Amino acid sequence: MFGGGAILAFCSLPHSKAEIAEHCGYKSTKNFTKKYLRPLLDSGALNMTVPDKPNSRNQKYIAAHTK
């Protein structure tokens, strides 16, 4: 599958969790979130566009270096 670098490259523009998971070949976001998205968020490499509302339906993710 994809690694963190490919996700960060894809997230040079904001994308939803479903869009990122689909780009990486995942049908479900559950395992994708646990394996890839959460570690990238925790390390600070990936940022939320609506950080004060992590469960917002409008939530998107963007690579930290693009800000």
SSE ordering: HHHEE
Number of helices: 3
Distance between the termini: 27 Å
Which class best fits the helix and strand makeup?
mainly alpha
* Large-scale geometry: globular
Average predicted local confidence, pLDDT: 91
Number of strands: 2
What is the spatial order of strands in the main beta sheet? 1-2
What fraction of residues sit in β-strands?
Answer: 5-15%
**Regions with little confidence, pLDDT below 50 for 5+ residues:** none
The major pleated sheet works out as: 2 strands, antiparallel
Percent helix, as a range, is: 40-55%
Over the alpha carbons, how many angstroms does the gyration radius reach?
11 Å
Write up this protein.
There is one protein chain. The termini are far apart. This protein has 3 helices and 2 strands; from the N terminus they run αααββ. A two-stranded antiparallel ribbon has the order 1-2. The chain has helices at residues 4-10, 17-23, 29-43; strands at residues 46-48, 61-63.
Task: Offer a few descriptive terms.
single chain; 67 residues; mainly alpha; two-stranded antiparallel sheet; 3 helices; globular
Itemize the secondary structure elements and their pairings.
Layout: H1 4-10, H2 17-23, H3 29-43, E1 46-48, E2 61-63
Gist of the model:
This protein is mainly α and 67 residues long.
